[in-house]
Design a protein that fits this description.
This protein is α/β, with parallel strands linked by helices. It has 8 helices and 9 strands.
Protein backbone atom coordinates (compact mmCIF):
# COMPACT_ATOMS: atom_id res chain seq x y z
CA UNK A 1 0.00 0.00 0.00
CA UNK A 2 2.90 2.35 0.65
CA UNK A 3 3.18 5.17 3.17
CA UNK A 4 0.80 8.11 3.48
CA UNK A 5 3.33 10.38 1.78
CA UNK A 6 3.75 7.90 -1.07
CA UNK A 7 -0.02 7.52 -1.58
CA UNK A 8 -0.57 11.29 -1.55
CA UNK A 9 2.26 11.78 -4.04
CA UNK A 10 0.76 9.30 -6.50
CA UNK A 11 -2.71 10.82 -6.16
CA UNK A 12 -1.35 14.30 -6.90
CA UNK A 13 0.74 12.98 -9.77
CA UNK A 14 -2.26 11.12 -11.26
CA UNK A 15 -4.58 14.13 -11.20
CA UNK A 16 -1.90 16.36 -12.67
CA UNK A 17 -1.47 13.87 -15.51
CA UNK A 18 -5.25 13.92 -16.11
CA UNK A 19 -5.26 17.72 -16.11
CA UNK A 20 -2.25 18.22 -18.38
CA UNK A 21 -2.32 15.04 -20.46
CA UNK A 22 1.41 14.56 -19.84
CA UNK A 23 3.39 12.13 -17.72
CA UNK A 24 6.25 13.34 -15.55
CA UNK A 25 9.41 13.18 -17.68
CA UNK A 26 11.64 11.92 -14.86
CA UNK A 27 11.48 9.34 -12.07
CA UNK A 28 9.46 11.82 -10.01
CA UNK A 29 7.18 14.76 -10.52
CA UNK A 30 9.36 17.27 -8.72
CA UNK A 31 6.39 19.52 -7.88
CA UNK A 32 5.16 16.92 -5.37
CA UNK A 33 8.47 15.35 -4.38
CA UNK A 34 9.31 16.99 -1.04
CA UNK A 35 7.19 14.73 1.21
CA UNK A 36 8.72 11.59 -0.29
CA UNK A 37 12.16 13.14 0.02
CA UNK A 38 11.66 13.88 3.73
CA UNK A 39 10.50 10.32 4.27
CA UNK A 40 13.62 9.03 2.49
CA UNK A 41 15.80 11.11 4.79
CA UNK A 42 14.08 9.55 7.80
CA UNK A 43 14.98 6.12 6.43
CA UNK A 44 18.66 7.03 5.97
CA UNK A 45 18.75 8.58 9.46
CA UNK A 46 18.04 5.20 11.05
CA UNK A 47 21.59 4.10 10.29
CA UNK A 48 23.49 7.27 9.38
CA UNK A 49 24.03 10.81 10.61
CA UNK A 50 22.48 13.32 8.21
CA UNK A 51 23.48 16.66 9.73
CA UNK A 52 26.99 17.12 11.08
CA UNK A 53 28.09 19.23 14.00
CA UNK A 54 31.52 20.76 14.36
CA UNK A 55 33.92 18.09 15.61
CA UNK A 56 31.91 15.06 14.44
CA UNK A 57 34.45 14.38 11.69
CA UNK A 58 38.04 15.44 11.03
CA UNK A 59 39.91 15.72 7.72
CA UNK A 60 43.68 15.15 7.82
CA UNK A 61 44.37 16.25 4.24
CA UNK A 62 43.62 12.82 2.83
CA UNK A 63 40.92 11.02 4.81
CA UNK A 64 37.70 12.04 6.52
CA UNK A 65 37.37 10.19 9.82
CA UNK A 66 34.71 9.88 12.50
CA UNK A 67 35.65 11.53 15.80
CA UNK A 68 32.62 10.90 18.02
CA UNK A 69 30.37 8.04 19.01
CA UNK A 70 27.62 8.87 16.52
CA UNK A 71 26.13 7.09 13.52
CA UNK A 72 28.54 7.33 10.57
CA UNK A 73 27.87 9.20 7.37
CA UNK A 74 26.34 7.21 4.51
CA UNK A 75 29.27 5.91 2.37
CA UNK A 76 28.06 7.91 -0.63
CA UNK A 77 28.01 11.12 1.39
CA UNK A 78 31.38 10.30 2.94
CA UNK A 79 33.15 9.87 -0.40
CA UNK A 80 31.55 13.02 -1.82
CA UNK A 81 32.70 15.19 1.07
CA UNK A 82 36.12 13.55 1.27
CA UNK A 83 36.73 14.07 -2.45
CA UNK A 84 35.74 17.75 -2.32
CA UNK A 85 37.93 18.25 0.74
CA UNK A 86 40.85 16.67 -1.12
CA UNK A 87 40.32 18.89 -4.16
CA UNK A 88 39.87 21.94 -1.90
CA UNK A 89 38.06 24.25 -4.32
CA UNK A 90 37.32 27.82 -3.26
CA UNK A 91 33.72 27.57 -4.52
CA UNK A 92 31.27 24.69 -4.96
CA UNK A 93 27.90 24.24 -6.67
CA UNK A 94 25.57 21.36 -5.80
CA UNK A 95 23.16 20.32 -8.53
CA UNK A 96 19.93 19.07 -6.96
CA UNK A 97 20.65 20.31 -3.44
CA UNK A 98 17.38 19.06 -1.93
CA UNK A 99 17.06 19.82 1.77
CA UNK A 100 20.57 21.25 1.97
CA UNK A 101 22.24 18.70 4.25
CA UNK A 102 25.24 18.28 1.95
CA UNK A 103 25.83 22.03 1.74
CA UNK A 104 25.47 22.33 5.51
CA UNK A 105 27.89 19.47 6.13
CA UNK A 106 30.47 20.87 3.72
CA UNK A 107 30.28 24.20 5.54
CA UNK A 108 30.85 22.42 8.88
CA UNK A 109 33.80 20.50 7.45
CA UNK A 110 35.36 23.54 5.76
CA UNK A 111 33.81 26.95 6.55
CA UNK A 112 36.02 28.54 3.88
CA UNK A 113 34.07 26.91 1.06
CA UNK A 114 31.87 29.36 -0.86
CA UNK A 115 28.75 27.27 -1.35
CA UNK A 116 25.98 27.37 -3.94
CA UNK A 117 23.01 25.11 -4.61
CA UNK A 118 20.23 24.73 -7.17
CA UNK A 119 17.18 22.50 -7.25
CA UNK A 120 14.36 22.18 -9.77
CA UNK A 121 11.76 22.06 -6.99
CA UNK A 122 10.56 25.20 -5.21
CA UNK A 123 9.41 22.87 -2.43
CA UNK A 124 12.91 21.49 -1.98
CA UNK A 125 14.41 24.98 -1.83
CA UNK A 126 11.79 25.94 0.77
CA UNK A 127 12.65 22.80 2.75
CA UNK A 128 16.35 23.70 2.65
CA UNK A 129 15.67 27.19 3.99
CA UNK A 130 13.53 25.73 6.79
CA UNK A 131 15.95 22.91 7.59
CA UNK A 132 19.08 25.10 7.50
CA UNK A 133 17.94 28.71 8.02
CA UNK A 134 21.45 29.97 8.79
CA UNK A 135 23.23 28.20 5.93
CA UNK A 136 25.74 30.63 4.37
CA UNK A 137 25.08 29.61 0.77
CA UNK A 138 23.53 30.99 -2.41
CA UNK A 139 20.56 28.73 -3.17
CA UNK A 140 17.95 29.22 -5.91
CA UNK A 141 15.47 27.10 -7.89
CA UNK A 142 16.84 26.20 -11.32
CA UNK A 143 15.87 23.57 -13.90
CA UNK A 144 19.16 21.99 -14.89
CA UNK A 145 17.48 20.16 -17.79
CA UNK A 146 16.83 23.48 -19.53
CA UNK A 147 18.74 24.24 -22.72
CA UNK A 148 22.35 25.06 -21.77
CA UNK A 149 22.92 28.78 -21.66
CA UNK A 150 19.27 29.56 -20.91
CA UNK A 151 19.59 29.52 -17.10
CA UNK A 152 21.79 31.57 -14.81
CA UNK A 153 24.26 29.61 -12.69
CA UNK A 154 27.16 30.85 -10.56
CA UNK A 155 30.70 30.25 -11.77
CA UNK A 156 32.49 27.91 -9.37
CA UNK A 157 35.62 25.80 -9.25
CA UNK A 158 33.77 22.55 -8.50
CA UNK A 159 30.28 21.17 -9.06
CA UNK A 160 28.87 17.97 -7.63
CA UNK A 161 25.77 15.78 -7.68
CA UNK A 162 24.70 13.16 -5.17
CA UNK A 163 22.14 10.71 -6.61
CA UNK A 164 20.44 13.37 -8.77
CA UNK A 165 21.08 12.90 -12.49
CA UNK A 166 20.24 9.21 -12.13
CA UNK A 167 16.59 10.29 -11.67
CA UNK A 168 16.47 12.43 -14.84
CA UNK A 169 15.10 10.35 -17.72
CA UNK A 170 14.80 13.16 -20.28
CA UNK A 171 17.46 15.76 -21.05
CA UNK A 172 19.93 14.44 -18.50
CA UNK A 173 22.71 15.50 -20.86
CA UNK A 174 21.47 19.09 -20.53
CA UNK A 175 21.86 18.80 -16.76
CA UNK A 176 25.42 17.58 -17.19
CA UNK A 177 26.23 20.32 -19.71
CA UNK A 178 24.81 23.06 -17.47
CA UNK A 179 26.84 21.92 -14.47
CA UNK A 180 30.02 21.60 -16.53
CA UNK A 181 29.44 25.12 -17.84
CA UNK A 182 29.26 26.39 -14.26
CA UNK A 183 32.38 24.56 -13.05
CA UNK A 184 35.83 25.67 -14.14
CA UNK A 185 37.97 22.81 -12.78
CA UNK A 186 36.13 19.80 -11.33
CA UNK A 187 32.86 17.89 -11.35
CA UNK A 188 32.31 15.13 -8.77
CA UNK A 189 29.46 12.67 -9.31
CA UNK A 190 28.11 9.91 -7.08
CA UNK A 191 25.19 8.35 -8.96
CA UNK A 192 23.57 5.05 -9.84
CA UNK A 193 25.95 4.23 -12.67
CA UNK A 194 23.49 1.84 -14.30
CA UNK A 195 20.91 4.53 -15.05
CA UNK A 196 22.95 6.27 -17.76
CA UNK A 197 26.31 5.69 -19.40
CA UNK A 198 27.80 8.76 -17.74
CA UNK A 199 31.26 8.23 -19.23
CA UNK A 200 29.90 8.07 -22.79
CA UNK A 201 27.62 11.07 -22.14
CA UNK A 202 30.46 13.22 -20.82
CA UNK A 203 32.78 12.29 -23.66
CA UNK A 204 30.01 13.08 -26.17
CA UNK A 205 29.33 16.49 -24.62
CA UNK A 206 33.02 17.38 -24.70
CA UNK A 207 33.39 16.20 -28.28
CA UNK A 208 30.40 18.33 -29.30
CA UNK A 209 31.83 21.40 -27.58
CA UNK A 210 29.13 21.48 -24.89
CA UNK A 211 31.71 21.19 -22.11
CA UNK A 212 33.79 24.39 -22.26
CA UNK A 213 37.02 22.79 -21.07
CA UNK A 214 40.07 22.48 -23.31
CA UNK A 215 40.96 19.14 -21.72
CA UNK A 216 38.80 16.44 -20.15
CA UNK A 217 40.15 13.93 -17.65
CA UNK A 218 37.82 11.33 -16.13
CA UNK A 219 38.93 9.53 -12.98
CA UNK A 220 37.25 7.51 -10.24
CA UNK A 221 37.60 7.05 -6.50
CA UNK A 222 37.23 3.98 -4.36
CA UNK A 223 35.33 4.34 -1.11
CA UNK A 224 37.65 4.08 1.88
CA UNK A 225 34.70 2.60 3.80
CA UNK A 226 33.37 0.01 1.34
CA UNK A 227 36.57 -0.58 -0.68
CA UNK A 228 34.67 -0.35 -3.97
CA UNK A 229 34.62 2.36 -6.68
CA UNK A 230 31.83 4.86 -5.98
CA UNK A 231 32.72 8.32 -7.30
CA UNK A 232 33.52 9.79 -10.70
CA UNK A 233 35.88 12.78 -10.67
CA UNK A 234 36.00 14.78 -13.90
CA UNK A 235 38.75 17.36 -14.17
CA UNK A 236 39.99 20.05 -16.55
CA UNK A 237 43.55 19.01 -15.76
CA UNK A 238 45.19 15.67 -14.92
CA UNK A 239 44.70 14.41 -11.37
CA UNK A 240 47.43 11.81 -10.78
CA UNK A 241 46.11 11.01 -7.29
CA UNK A 242 43.06 9.26 -8.80
CA UNK A 243 43.02 6.32 -11.26
CA UNK A 244 41.86 7.07 -14.80
CA UNK A 245 38.43 5.71 -15.72
CA UNK A 246 39.04 3.92 -19.01
CA UNK A 247 36.34 1.27 -18.69
CA UNK A 248 32.87 2.30 -17.50
CA UNK A 249 32.28 -1.18 -16.09
CA UNK A 250 34.58 -0.24 -13.19
CA UNK A 251 31.71 1.87 -11.86
CA UNK A 252 28.67 0.34 -13.58
CA UNK A 253 29.21 -3.19 -12.36
CA UNK A 254 29.59 -2.29 -8.70
CA UNK A 255 26.48 -2.52 -6.52
CA UNK A 256 26.76 0.83 -4.76
CA UNK A 257 23.51 0.75 -2.82
CA UNK A 258 22.54 4.26 -3.90
Amino acid sequence: MGTAADRLYHIRKFFKMLRTGRKAPDDYDWQFYSDIYREGLDGIARDHTLILREGDYAFDGEHLSLQRDIKPLHPNYHITYETLLQLSPESILEGGCGGGDHLHNLHVLNPRFRLHGVDVSDGQVALLRKRHPDLPAWVEPRDLTAEPGSIELPRVEAAFTQAVIMHIRENHRNALANLFSAATRWFVLVENWKRHDFLADIRYLHREGRIPWKELHVQYRESSLLKIPLAMVVSAEPLPRYPVLTDYRILRDVIAGI
